[in-house]
Amino acid sequence: MTAVATVQHHPAMDDYLRLNRANWDERAPAHAASRGYEVQRFIDDPTFLSRVVRFDLARLGDIAGLSVVHLQCHIGTDTISLARLGANMTGLDLSPASLTEARALADRTDTSVRFVESDVYSALKVLEPQSFDLVYTGVGALCWLPSIARWAHVVSSLLKPGGRLFIRDGHPMLFSLDESDSDRLVVEYPYFEREEPLVFTEPGTYVETDAKFSATTTHEWSHGIGEMVTALIDAGMQLTALSEHDSVPWEALPGQMTRDDATGEWRLTDRPWRLAASFTLQARKR
Ligand SMILES: C[S@@+](CC[C@H](N)C(=O)[O-])C[C@H]1O[C@@H](n2cnc3c(N)ncnc32)[C@H](O)[C@@H]1O
């Protein structure tokens, strides 16, 4: 979820894919051109890895030779980082403009990645079931999906028996807070999954850009940590690791966070141990 949004509760959810796709299509070229996504560093340095992938390197372990699908791969910076670690990569995303940027970056960095356009929930129509050793998902993904149970079913179905899920995302505790309050931590949004979307209208994006956007309305959902774990267990997965972190890779609560220059992560300036800001979860298909 993004900073400084207005929110209204809205019962209709049938056109969320159209709205969210239009939003991401507009953001993709601005993200690729931004300093924040560091695209030029990928081109200049063939060993460069995204901050999100670097953060979890030790937890990720050796992925060389694995068949990996990156769900919601956006402009491909994390996908290409995983390819640089030796994985055979497929990236999937809803947004054609994101995939255009991802393919361009793969070309410019001479990286072999298969990119496919699909809604996560339709992934099994475009990808072979039970064909991946690892499903990877990076920060800013689950809030775009209405049902965590449907997501867990897709993840499990894509994995070979014994295959692994690796996800880092923003923590639902963080997403429940009012990002427009720059002084206090105020619980404003749902922690638990609800059927109706949160409808946000937000003029900007989470990186610095001069781009002007018109597709500014998005539909988003929250999912509690317990709901994620339960959904994965119900889908035939076994939880193998769960770490909660006090930091996120973007300024999620403007005015209340300080950037750690060494890692690029943001955490509360005052007593950061009060807030679970992100998590890394791993699970294995039984
Ligand atoms: C914040 S980005 C992905 C995060 C990635 N770590 C990054 O920053 O590059 C979210 C991505 O999810 C994609 N997305 C949103 N809803 C989706 C859906 N239902 N199916 C597939 N992709 C979706 C968007 O198009 C966007 O590229």
Helix and strand arrangement:
Blueprint: E1 6-9, H1 16-33, H2 39-44, H3 51-55, H4 57-60, E2 67-71, H5 77-84, E3 88-93, H6 96-108, E4 113-117, H7 123-126, E5 132-137, H8 148-158, E6 159-170, H9 172-175, E7 198-201, E8 217-220, H10 225-234, E9 237-245, E10 247-248, E11 257-260, E12 265-268, E13 278-285
Parallel strand pairs: 2-3, 2-5, 3-4, 5-6
Antiparallel strand pairs: 1-7, 6-13, 7-8, 9-13, 10-12, 11-12
Helix pairs in contact: 1-6, 8-10
The structure holds S-adenosylmethionine.
H/E topology pattern: EHHHHEHEHEHEHEHEEHEEEEE
Indicate the overall shape.
globular
Largest sheet: 7 strands, mixed
Strand residue content: 25-35%
Please count the beta strands (DSSP E, at least 2 residues each): 13
Kindly provide the radius of gyration, computed on alpha-carbon positions and rounded to a whole number of angstroms: 18 Å
Oligomer: single chain
- What is the first-to-last residue Cα distance? 32 Å
Rounded mean pLDDT is 94
Q: How much helix, percentage-wise, in residues? A: 25-40%
